[in-house]
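Field reference: sequence -> structure
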Amino acid sequence: MRPLSFIKVPLLFCLIIEIQVVSSFVAFGQERGEMRVAFWNFENFFDPFVDSTRVYNEFTENGGQHWTKSRFYKKRNNMYKAILGISNNEPMAVLGIAEIENEYVLKMLFNQTPLKTHNYRIIHYEGDDKRGIDVAMVYCIDKLQLIYTEPIKVRNPRNPKYKTRDILYAKFYDRRGDTIHVFVNHWPSRYGGERETIKLRALAANTLKHKVDSLVFLHQTIPKIIIMGDFNDTPEDPSIKEVLCAKSLDNTGKDDVLVNLFTDGKTLGFEGTLKHQYNWQIFDQIIVSKSLIDSYKGLLYKQNSATIFHGDFLFEKDESYGGVKLFRTYVGPKYFGGYADHLPVYIDLIFK
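Structure field:
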């Protein structure tokens, strides 16, 4: 170990840098008494080990992506630092996650980094995705008590062999006595063409709509619901607007149940959550029930809190199409060592 006199200047320098980084998160910070609910697609967060039970093992040292332990740890460290930024170093109530391989990577992230002080617990089920990527949820036990959880399978009646990612459902009690239902989604991608895959996303939307309708029927009122995810569609696409019936607050009628809080990019702090060539699109969204907006007591959506988190460290210069693009872990087989190919989104809840 160096003598103390040799580390005074470096420590001071590190403190200055840390203060600058933390100050860049102030605009995204939670106030005391609020609960942050967020979602992030982690972009292929695999462990570096060969899984003999699966055909897909590209994210291993000898696989096509040359995914080594050092690359895995760099990705993990990138993600925990970004999550601290999203939450302003405060525990979030819920973080929904897409594109994780298994519970191991979640434990390495939430139990083996500074995030362990936030008392998060993991909800994860092994799904049917052919590449082995799943959705997951973590929640803070100081803010919420888990009552029930299940994976919801998305089935295609015309193709019994069809498999895709589950929709993850969890029911919680707020520590002050309210109940909230949370769904995490990662709907089928547009790989193969947007029009060619539109029916697959409609299938996922219809599966989710049936579950929401069953909750409304069971409670004989509109319960407090949060739906989050990477939908691989925008708020204006049919799967969300017509099948799920999630619309902007201004366009909801008296019989509508769901409000999409991510319909207007001008109010979200950034224009989109992922970029395709010149264009930013909002594929990552949070949708809530109207009861989280107009209830007179308990948990409520904090007005205008819907945000696309866009810390500068998540971007790099876009030499091809101008402006900035996301600082990704990979682009195809080429390793860049960044964060993800989607931006995180969040909302805040208050208690009335």
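Note: Helices lie at 8-23, 69-86, 103-110, 194-219, 238-243, 291-294.
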